[in-house]
Known about the structure:
The chain has helices at 2-24, 29-48, 66-89, 94-133, 135-149, 154-163, 166-190. By secondary structure, the protein is mostly helical.
Amino acid sequence: MTQLLRAIASEQHSLALYAAFAAQYPFFAPFVNAQNAQLEALSFFARQAGIAPSQESPNIAIPTTEMLALESALAHESAKIAFYDNLAASEPNLAIRDVFFRIAATCHNDHLPAIRSALAGHYAENSLGDLLASDWLQNAQKLVQDAQSGTLSEENLAGFLRNLNVSMLGGVLLGGAVVALCNHFLNQNKE
């Protein structure tokens, strides 16, 4: 029963975490519902055994940005999977072991992909915003305008290339090559 009490304490902590995050970031509201369901499933077995689990209410620090909250949630869910895998490995009660496996599966199959997807959106949004706000893009636009108007000088082009980040140039060239390759295969499939 010690494992069951540890699992209940873990779910109480998860519920407090996601409730605190959801108050600030609506993305986490569905996680609160999932935590309530998982906690109820574990509490059912505790009630059957006549055990009254302690009611923890941990103090949760809310991250200052949604991206930090997502990164924190990603680490939390990864740790929960390992925690429940360890509990399930030594749980003699098959019904409780099944609940442990289902909680780990929910973390792995539902929570982690949702969090990763939201993080990818934040990273892409921030990277694009950084690129659009950069001096590099403004300089590139001026260079293109000068080339179109025929006033592009060798000094302007050399100055632009001197300030160009090599990794960015590699990324642009690689991206262009991938687009060209995809375009080639799409055109080949049309024929």
